[in-house]
Amino acid sequence: MQEKHLYEYAIIRVLPVVEREEFINVGIILFCKSEKFIRVHFAINETKLRSFSKDLDLDQIRLNLQSFKKIAMGDEKCGPIALLDIPSRFRWLTAVRSSAIQTSRPHPGLCNDLEQTAKRLFEELVS
After folding, report:
1. 82-94, pLDDT tens digit by residue?
2. From CA 34, how far away is CA 1, in angstroms rounded?
3. Measured over all CA atoms, what is the biggest interatomic distance in the chain, rounded to whole angstroms?
4. Is 99 within 8 Å of 1 (Cβ atoms)?
5. What is the DSSP letter of 107?
6. Can you give the residue range of the structural domain that contains 34?
7. pTM
8. Can you list the positions of beta strands (E) in 1-127?
9. Positive or negative torsion for Cα 51, 53, 59, 65
10. Smallest Cα–Cα separation from 38: which of 3, 73, 12, 13?
């Protein structure tokens, strides 16, 4: 029998107009402390985002989401946050913020395959 892994995930959301508090799911962050595993998957649906705001800076949103991914993966060029341990990076990425990119609160789960679970959650919650 394969070992089950306790993981946490959060949904990455873009708020095209922060003041309206409407959001579109664009990605997920999945983290497992025991396996030292963290993944960020995202995709930008420009048409959907533009339907909420024609003035949204999609290039900046894309850069910010790429930074989320680089921080998660520990890219040393992303500054001191990227150098923290994996649990600390996950907590920083999922911290409450009032910017155009926010995350849901973390949710727990159990799985056998973390990579497959990250892909499945992305398909179910974003695609």
Report:
1. 999 999 999 999 9
2. 18
3. 52
4. no
5. E
6. 5-125
7. 0.93
8. 5-14, 24-32, 37-42, 101-103, 107-111
9. negative
10. 73
